[in-house]
Amino acid sequence: MALVVQKYGGTSVGSIERIKNVARRVVETKNRGNQVVVVLSAMSGETDRLIALANEINSEHSRREHDVLVASGEQVSISLMAMAVESLGEKAISFLGSQVSIKTDNDHSRARIKAIDSRRIMEALASGFIVVVAGFQGVDDEGNITTLGRGGSDTSAVAVAAALQADVCEIYTDVDGVYTTDPNICNKARKLDKISYDEMLELSSLGAKVLQNRSVEFAQKYGIPIHVRSSFSDLEGTIVCKEDDNMEKAVVSGVAYNKNEAKVTIRGIPDHPGIAASIFSSIADEGIVVDMIIQNTSAEGLTDLTFTVPKLDYEHALSSLKRINDEIGAREINGDRDIAKVSIVGIGMRTHANVAGRMFAALSRENINIMMISTSEIKVSCVIAEKYTELAVRVLHQEFELAKETTDESKEV
Ligand code: ADP
Ligand code: ASP
Ligand code: MG
């Protein structure tokens, strides 16, 4: 008998009809002789609706109360799912994160899972129940409700699979696997049979929301293969697992984009030791996470600094910098919300030269200006104007011939 963890995303449980459809799949999985734990997101649109309600009260509401509110979406979906399973004649029981001790730190709205006590789930499974667990939420040491960041149910599912030492962890979503890029904006995107943890981690960290990046981190740490597949078909999806010799080692295996960042520029900063430290510690003290940073070479003792922050924190970052400008002494602080980051990812990049050059040339042929660049061993990212995002993704997809299966010549040697 195998222990199977299945996670269903918002679209898959977005209506009563869809909840009934998932309940049928879950019951079929049990009838094939498996023990089944189901991890659910809120019904599609619900988390956004709750966040909008909170912002109507006060956009600077406390993060603790934010979590109490947004965690409620999953309470609705798990109870409806348990009822739908019961109505098919099977035993089901739903649990909130706190009821199965999904222990997290207290960093509200982006908490990290520290431990899960698997006892209650195991007891329910042993008594023949299908167990339905609320994704996205946990509880801190003081009993406060926490949430894991947008898309966090993926991480709940992988963490539950690790804690239960499950045989299989399946992530059911509205596309039938991980593609070379978002299939909803590039109709040439190709489904991958397998992808390494390293590449998937980069793709999801760079915006491919098919998996939350922390779920991939977790899976890699505990060696859990993830099967990403569609809740609307029985097709095999994509296996996210350890890099192996049979895997495509394409120079570039995927293109990702992220429209959720904004750019802040500080011009004419006196260039002396300690300036960057005071700027970034003041930003960090506000709980704002910085992504890309570039600093120009100084001229006449002055330098410019540009960095990106989540769009949601943009106004906050500008106001806090303006507050400390007496200390920094910058000539000008401004920014741009209408940007996007496009990235190419591939483990084959480790051994191929001029991948970045090809990316820049492809963007320039479309007259897309690059505002910032960052690279790592297996990725190159460029910040561009947001309005060119879709075009840039398609152009890069074509430049690196991602629509085609990798041929032997383009494989890493
Ligand atoms: P769920 O609600 O099931 O968690 P999400 O909306 O969070 O689903 O993630 C699925 C979406 O991820 C897809 O609909 C697709 O638009 C997007 N996506 C972005 N990049 C990729 C990619 N490389 N492969 C597949 N889907 C992707
Ligand atoms: N409901 C949460 C969200 O919309 C968690 C998830 O879907 O994974 O972000
Ligand atoms: Mg998701």
What does this structure look like?
This protein has 413 residues and is an alpha/beta fold. It folds into 2 domains: 3-174, 3-Layer(aba) Sandwich (Carbamate kinase), CATH 3.40.1160; 244-404, VC0802-like (2-Layer Sandwich), CATH 3.30.2130.10. Helix content is 33%, strand content 25%. It has helices spanning 16-31, 46-57, 63-70, 72-86, 119-126, 153-164, 197-205, 213-222, 275-285, 314-323, 325-328, 355-365, 389-399, and strands at residues 3-8, 35-40, 92-95, 102-104, 113-116, 130-134, 137-139, 145-147, 168-173, 194-196, 226-230, 238-241, 254-258, 261-270, 293-295, 302-310, 332-336, 339-345, 372-376, 379-385. The strands form 5 sheets. Strands 3-6-2-1-9-11-12-10 form an 8-stranded mixed sheet, sandwiched between helices. Strand 15 (293-295) and strand 16 form a beta hairpin. Helix 6 packs parallel to helix 8 (213-222). The longest helix has 16 residues, at 16-31. It is globular. The model is unreliable at 407-413 (pLDDT under 50). Bound molecules: adenosine-5'-diphosphate (ADP), aspartic acid (ASP) and magnesium ion (MG). Aspartic acid is lined by residues 9-10, 41-42, 47, 73, 135-136, 150-154.
